[in-house]
Amino acid sequence: MVLKVYGPTYASPKRVLVCLIEKEIEFETVHVDLFKGENKEPEFLKLQPFGVLPVIQDGDYTLYESRAIIRYYAEKYKDQGTELLGKTIEERGLVEQWLEVEAHNFQPPIYNLVINVLFAPLLGAPSDSKVIEESDQKLEKVLDIYEDRLSKTKYLAGDFFSLADLSHLPFGHYLVNQTGRGNLVRERKHVSAWWDDISNRPAWKKVLELYKYPV
Ligand SMILES: N[C@@H](CCC(=O)N[C@@H](CS(=O)(=O)O)C(=O)NCC(=O)O)C(=O)O
């Protein structure tokens, strides 16, 4: 049975897809239409009770939460494809640290901008200007910390590409290309060079080619 990834056009499922391609793991995708509410259907909720994407089915093994899924496959296929977890426990610690930073400091403000700058106007919903302003301010501070870190090491966990860098791709793509705030990256020399490096990796370009973002 081939691994099934439910999504796949949305940002968090793309985090899983790019990891599977880097690890040279075969998979199929199952489209779930969020705009039609298919993620709230009883059948889907049996797989993912929180009603969000992605979820994977690998034989009789089911897993959700994109960062849990990429950690699982990066470990399970440690010796296949791109090495993504570092070579020592100290490097692994830094990979985990920056994975958490991405989840708790990088993605949330970008998610708020995607909802309020990108989706709200499309759906005829009101945008929250206070949330937009707070998200811009939070991102400035976060990216200043990234600029300092990336002035010392080529990648976030060290001088090697890892799961931590990979995890930034789906929402970094929104930030740089679709929120009108790409300048926040471009104004920071090391962050800009890092973004160009990781977003030009063949695996990510393949994800963008095969699975278009919904907007
Ligand atoms: N922490 C979850 C977040 C999943 C999530 O919020 N997915 C969004 C799609 S995306 O924002 O990641 O592109 C979703 O399904 N949203 C549907 C909904 O919120 O009803 C993960 O990383 O898997």
From TrEMBL:
Keyword line: Cytoplasm, Detoxification, Transferase
Keyword hit for S-adenosyl-L-methionine: no
Gene3D superfamilies documented for this protein: 1.20.1050.10, Glutaredoxin (3.40.30.10)
Domain GST N-terminal: 1-81
GO terms under biological process: glutathione metabolic process; toxin catabolic process
EC category: transferase
EC number(s) reported in the record: 2.5.1.18
Ranges of residues in domain GST C-terminal: 88-215
Reaction(s) catalysed by this chain's protein: RX + glutathione = an S-substituted glutathione + a halide anion + H(+)
Molecular-function GO terms, alphabetical: glutathione binding; glutathione transferase activity
Pfam families: GST_C (PF00043), GST_N (PF02798)
Alphabetized InterPro entries for the sequence: Glutathione-S-Trfase_C-like, Glutathione-S-Trfase_C_sf, Glutathione_S-Trfase, Glutathione_S-Trfase_N, GST_C, GST_Phi_C, Thioredoxin-like_sf
A GO term from the CC aspect: cytosol
Keyword Transcription: no
Compartment(s) of residence: Cytoplasm, Cytosol
Signal peptide: none
Main location: cytoplasm
PANTHER family in the record: GLUTATHIONE S-TRANSFERASE RHO, GLUTATHIONE TRANSFERASE
UniProt family annotation: Belongs to the GST superfamily. Phi family.
The protein's name: glutathione transferase
Organism name: Canavalia gladiata
